[in-house]
Design brief:
This protein has 64 residues and is mainly α. Helices cover 78% and strands 0% of the residues. It contains 2 helices and no strands. Helix 1 packs antiparallel against helix 2.
């Protein structure tokens, strides 16, 4: 499960880096920056929901 979360974090950071690249390359005129940031938000929300569901169903144990 830790590997799964780490991969999601990698993809989130890669999307953020691509948004910065497109912002610099397009000089703020294109829509690629917005699409990359939208993907990053979607991945973040999905990761959060999966972690919450994993905790609820007992896949991720709560530490005591």
């Amino acid at each position: 499960m830790k590997l799964f979360a780490a991969l999601f974090m990698f993809f989130i950071l890669a999307s953020l880096a691509s948004a910065m690249y497109y912002l610099i390359k397009d000089k703020g005129q294109g829509t690629r920056t917005v699409k990359s940031l939208t993907l990053r938000i979607g991945l973040s929300v999905l990761l959060f929901a999966l972690l919450m569901l994993g905790t609820y169903f007992g896949i991720i144990p709560l530490s005591q």
